[in-house]
Amino acid sequence: MLPIQLFRTNKELILEGLRKKNFKEPELVDRIIEADERRRQLQVENDNLSALVNSASKSIGQHMAKGEKAEAELLKEKVRLHKEQANDVAQKLSDLETELQDMIVLLPNLPHSSVPKGKTPEDNEVVRDGGTVPDLSAQKLPHWELTAKYGLMDLELGTKITGSGFPVFMGQGARLQRALINYFLNYNINAGYKEYCPPFMVNEASAYGTGQLPDKEGQMYHVTEDDFYLIPTAEVPVTNIYRDTIIPESELPVKMTAYSPCFRREAGSYGKDVRGLNRVHQFDKVEVVQLVNPATSYDVLEEMVLHVEKLVQSLELPYRILRLCGGDMSFASALTYDFEVYSAAQERWLEVSSVSNFETFQTNRLKARYKDGNGKTQLVHSLNGSSLALPRIMACILENHQSPEGIKIPAALVPYFGKDLIS
Q1: Which end is more exposed in the chain, N or C (fewer Cβ atoms within 10 Å of the end residue's Cβ)?
Q2: Given its phi and psi angles, is residue 343 left (phi above 0), alpha (psi -120 to 50 degrees) or beta?
Q3: What is the largest CA-CA distance in the chain?
Q4: Beta bridge partners of 229
Q5: How far apart are CA 254 and CA 247, in angstroms?
Q6: pLDDT-based confidence at residue 120 (cuts at 50, 70, 90)
């Protein structure tokens, strides 16, 4: 959530950022500024009425002490009228503050100055790439045929049990899922992240705190009777651990990692993009989250990008890193790097991770703060990244490492999987 002070001091900066993010309702900015001005006027009126009530109340006591009952009664009537006016102004003030808040939360975060202009994924910038695309034989198979060949996954069984987009992993497929999760968690823990096992459903306040609501309400599964939301990522419950918290500056940065299943409706997805594991409604992911001093957050972002890059490299997969353009960024992000891995059988790039800096956009909603060296309470910056999302990583491991003998397991994963070949 953007701070209200920014609307008062730098309207043009907000409008410029909204243009870069291709936001469709820039007129909201003027409405917010007008509402804030009315709110401040009402606040002054409310403060003045409170001062009049307090002053008159003191005078009543003084008159009563002198036996001046008639004067005291006149003042009591004035106090009564002032209190009625104050109550009316307080209600208007409360209503206006709600209206103001409801408008501000509709605005996305402003992009960092390094974010390129653009509207579609084609406008994203390739920062760097790595790995080698394997030279597979003409008999190469996509992962949905490989999973059937080796008995790793059954999509039809998932449809029977739940519906389309809910795969069932079995045998060596289930074993590979577990190996990837354990490997990713240990990799993050060894880099100083503290492991959490959070709830997989959150309340409305938590979904609001990290920016899923009101922006992504249609993409989340909602348990209406209890008003809970199934999480789209572990970022949501993990970041909310520090909601309404003041963190000692000495404890920064806070580094957290968590595994969770992720649930996304993916409304409107169709065609080749949803084949096999390319796009599913439930999938596993390991997440990293950091809460940091604002002065260091962009250095931390680069560190997190390197952390994920080394993890992808260890899986022996060809990859590229993209800096997302304004039109392809998430609602809450100020700067995002996407990782894509090349699918050698499908001959296309598949996103496997996003690493983002949200600056104070989430923490302003969460009221996640720290006290600086001067004792002043400040908002921390929040960052998160996928480390990693499993479906497309698994798809690319199967496709890129296939051979006539079977599917080779990357060396870093062998201790977790227990053998070096799926056959």
Answers
A1: C
A2: beta
A3: 107
A4: 202, 222
A5: 9
A6: very high
